[in-house]
Design brief:
- Helix content is 76%, strand content 0%.
- The protein is built from 8 helices and no strands.
- Helix 1 runs parallel beside helix 3, helix 3 runs parallel beside helix 5 (71-85) and helix 6 (88-96) packs parallel to helix 7 (107-158).
Length: 212
């Protein structure tokens, strides 16, 4: 018969608490407080880049159940977790994803982490600029298409039977107005496409220079 493995209650509690934290749970219940592995919780918080004030929330939760967090174990675990969070590759990833900078890294790791974050942040901002210009071009092209449709309708109305002279004059005026707006929109699109080419070149240069 296969041997049934029995998990130590503190091991089980550590798993429960870790899952709760990873799922974004903001509170700890009685069982999680009683069985908590505070070093593991600290480690998870460090890896996630959480502020040290997070332990204050756990203290409030567990005080309801007469449990006091092991602050020394939590801090030791968090310091270990920060060694992972504060790696330059992670700083670059956070910056490149558009996350805000949080100054929580130990002094020995902060400069390299910040430098890598800034590289990623520059790429993020450059890419955002390119995306915004793409969006503006698409919007202006849609506007131009609508203007062309309106002009086509006006041209069709211009040759309709039974129009009076003053009505034809008004339609011609409206067609000229639409044409002028179309010309302006086309010029705007050309300018935006020129900007886009420069922005894309800038983004490509940043990407080539990145060491990450």
């Amino acid at each position: 018969m296969a041997e049934t493995r029995k998990h130590h209650p503190f091991f089980t509690g550590a798993i429960l608490v870790t899952l709760a934290l990873l799922q974004g749970c903001a509170t700890l219940d009685k069982d999680e407080c009683m069985l908590a592995d505070w070093r593991l919780i600290g480690y998870q918080d460090g890896v996630a880049g959480k502020s040290a004030v997070a332990v204050g929330e756990y203290r409030e939760d567990c005080a309801k159940h007469a449990v006091v967090p092991d602050l020394d174990a939590y801090r030791a675990g968090r310091e270990e977790g920060l060694q992972e969070y504060c790696k330059p590759d992670n700083g670059y990833r956070l910056g490149n994803a558009g996350h805000g900078f949080v100054a929580i890294c130990p002094t020995a790791l902060e400069d390299d982490f910040r430098d890598a974050y800034n590289v990623g942040r520059k790429l993020y901002l450059a890419r955002s600029t390119v995306n915004k210009t793409h969006s503006r071009i698409n919007n202006r092209k849609k506007a131009l298409s609508n203007l062309e449709d309106d002009r086509a309708k006006k041209l069709a109305a211009l040759i309709a039977d039974g129009l009076k002279a003053d009505q034809r004059v008004m339609i011609l005026y409206e067609i000229n107005e639409l044409q002028q707006e179309m010309n302006n929109t086309e010029d705007e699109i050309v300018g935006l496409e020129h900007d886009l080419a420069n922005q894309q070149n800038h983004l490509d240069r940043l990407a080539r220079k990145s060491a990450y």
